[in-house]
Fold Serine protease HtrA.
Amino acid sequence: MSVGFPTCLGIKAISYSTPMKGRSISAVILVLVGLGLGASLLQGQVPVGRATTAALPKAEAGAKLENEQNTMDIVQRYEPGLVFISTEQQVTTADPFGWMFGGPQTQIQRGVGSGFFVNSAGDILTNFHVVAGESGAGASKISIRVMGSTKAVPAKVIGYAPQYDLALIRPSSIGADGLDKKFIKPIPLGNSDILKAGQKTIAMGAPFGLDFSVSEGIVSSVSRRIPIGFSGSGQGITQKAVQTDAAINPGNSGGPLLDSGGNVIGINTQIFSPSGQSGGMAQSAGVGFAIPVNVAKNLLPRLQAAGGGLVTAPRLGIEAGLVAQTGQGAVPVGLSSLTPEARQTWKLPDAGILVGAVTKGLPAAQAGLRGGTQTQQFRGGQIRLGGDVITAINGQPVDGIEDLQAALIDKKVGDSVTLQVLRDGQKRDVKVTLDQAAFK
């Protein structure tokens, strides 16, 4: 949904998108589809034609390319670590004719997704949207099934992180009454920081509910920035993602993306699907996205210690000093949203984050950042002047709170970031250390 601001002294005409499961990239409307929800697959739905097989020379028939053998070896060794996830959620519908049938109707919504074992204790990493259900409130029932077994066993959430679109689940019991321990086959976690475009990728999951499927491709990009995860308002937080052309479809969500060594390099999360935009059914267009595994590795200890609760992205403790009034309420915006005349009047740079306030006890306050002292109302918004202006983080320009979130998303306790700040017209660098308080 696009929201416009009128041109005036203060806020110039801008628009922004509010992504949920469908999200926008730049001016081109891309449909980034969360893949965890189920899809109905009927017998005879896919037409099958008569196939013709050409006879191969004996030498070719028995030969296997080196890459082909590598793929088969990886699949044979690590596919047993893949987990098929099914969910159920009770949803009450507001039927306009409900009074005829005794009031609101309750339905069971079912979904499917994927996950994979990360350790011998049976912890399973997946996407948040796989176990959150369509409403985002959380599935009432989670079941898992592993390769080589027809038995579905219940599972429980150990920790969930909506902002990262990640969740950690575990079999409710391991042993005779639950999952047999022999089926727990962890897949090794790799290093997404050393990925290069062109590297081989293998995606595992359950596209359209077709469990334990495999596809192959390459890394198309290592620095694609897209909205991943869900903030408190439902908006995605811009993060770096691994782009791949390996076929990924609904049901692949939460499944692993592996390299040629069999190491997990990403967690499949979204696809670009023009067909989903026009026809409502998402399908692979050769552009898929995975959460870098290093983000998950940094987050894993916090998920394991969450006790079934929420894990959030680190906070600096900064409140934006520039707010635009929209039909959806007050929205914090960057300085580029101001007209040139307004920036000149208030002696502000062309882009950046005006610090309106800092929260006591959080990293920004401890590093000495200053909030504003004078609040002014104007047509279209409000500004709080007199505080610091953040122009970059670790050398990367910023122009909104979401830019700070994107830079912090893969950080852990003890990490530091350097903010480039304007204070009274003078440039300075401020080092901010992320302590325990930043992660609460």
Notes: Residues 46 and 261 are 34 Å apart (CA to CA). The longest helix spans residues 66-78.
